[in-house]
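>> received
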Amino acid sequence: MWSNLRKRFDARIQRKEVNELVVKSERGRRRYIVFEVSPNITKESLIRTTNSICKNEESLYIIQCNSSRAIIRCSPDQIGRSIEIMNIADSYSRSILMSGTLKTLRDRYPELKNNASKKH
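>> returned
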């Protein structure tokens, strides 16, 4: 029985159907920040604006933007600069909460759960 399962698992690995996990020490830790943003701003316009402000070495990723709130992802050493970039991109924005997980933020702000992308 176990050898049969192992054979199927090995076959999935060869077909690259198994997601490879990357250790945090290699990838780096991430921080997620919830911002209150202008009600009429879209994710696409926020991405365009932040990309025009960011320098090459900076990484700021917009996870979602809806219902007057936005979630961004950044590295722990770029938290201050990410908040600064968001304030430049949308003068109305202000940071509300920061966490190491999206789950914590979405539990705190249920309206961010509704439009969260589901993994199938």
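>> The longest helix spans residues 2-14.
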